[in-house]
Amino acid sequence: MTTGNNKEPNELKNVNEVFGDPNDEAAIRMLEDKFASAVNAGDIDAIMKNYIPDNTLVVFDVVPRKKYSGADTYRQNWEDFFSHFNGNPKIAITDLSITVNGNIGFSHSIQHVTGTDKEGHSVHRTVRVTDGYRKIGGNWLIVLEHVSVPVDLRTGKAVFSPEP
Amino acid sequence: MTTGNNKEPNELKNVNEVFGDPNDEAAIRMLEDKFASAVNAGDIDAIMKNYIPDNTLVVFDVVPRKKYSGADTYRQNWEDFFSHFNGNPKIAITDLSITVNGNIGFSHSIQHVTGTDKEGHSVHRTVRVTDGYRKIGGNWLIVLEHVSVPVDLRTGKAVFSPEP
Fold it and tell me: Would the pLDDT of B147 be above 90?
């Protein structure tokens, strides 16, 4: 098995060139843009429009429980999320890389959340996000989301600003 | 937007019925079985055979850094993983749900790691895993992996045995 190659990874760019319909990749990128705009507007209805709106949605979130099933349940997480902030937190998506083929796709990205919590403390949180998508009736929707921060296993503590 | 439906979620079973080639779903399920067997055997070469063997592999792992790029880098994580155990830890994959279309797929699962660490303490760790796959030369490989535990944001502590 050959694994040797010290060049900077291409972050699936080549995969996309081989695989992806550029229109579908652009549509998924627009979905993620709409998602970020909705978070930045504090608009939970607009956030949820990017997810499959039924009970098949599966989310592994930063916070417990182990798994969230269904759009209604995940919507509550977004309500909880905003309730911890004074004013509106902001989100910025970077390093978005999309793989798409036919009617499904997946992506990974880094998302930066900044704001001020109810106690007046600054919040800076870097999360890793992977999404699974389906194209339904011509529209791409998130059907699987996994959001996390890494953990230092020696201390059991989350690492909110991890090294690259 | 209709989200109301209190029935137990089908964990994408319906999606698979509509979308998936049963042979491809079975092949991905076999890949995950081979992965678990390789972990249980402590065989890092066999573990790595389930991942794309080049620098396009992307992994968000339980532990920092933020992102691991490339098979060589991720292999080191597996070496670190085993180095913390006395004897060989065991892994069990449950709740595996696969979505596949054409030459790509994604899945989510819950994975349970048990063992004894170098200090003699029992380790019980429940992790959430999402994988992205590509079919290359007839073989399915993991090209994107995200492994995490949820975090209690009030304490900053990882939750290794979260509620369902």
Answer: yes
Instruction: For residues B100 and B106, give the distance between their C-alpha atoms in angstroms, rounded to a whole number.
Output: 6
In a domain, residue B42? The reply is yes
Higher pLDDT, A140 or B7: A140
Q: Is B5 part of a structural domain of the chain?
A: no
Q: Which of residues 106-135 of B touch A (CB under 8 A)?
A: 106, 108, 110, 126, 128, 130, 132, 134
Which residue from B minimizes the CA distance to A157? Answer: B157
β-pairing, A122-136 vs A139-148, is: antiparallel
Nearest to A106 by CA among A31, A9, A7, A10: A31
Q: B94: domain range? A: 19-158
Q: Scanning the structure block, which residue is given the tokens 């909880």? A: A80
Q: Is the pLDDT of residue B45 over 80?
A: yes
Give me the pLDDT at residue B161, please.
87
Domain membership flag for residue B12: no
Please tell me the total count of domains within chain B.
1
Tens of pLDDT, residue by residue over A24-72, are 999 999 999 999 999 999 999 999 999 999 999 999 999 998 999 999 9
CB-nearest partner of A156 from B14, B104, B158? B158
CATH number assigned to the domain comprising residue B122: 3.10.450.50
- Is residue B7 in a domain? no
Residue of B3, B132, B156 lying closest to A72 (CB–CB):
B3
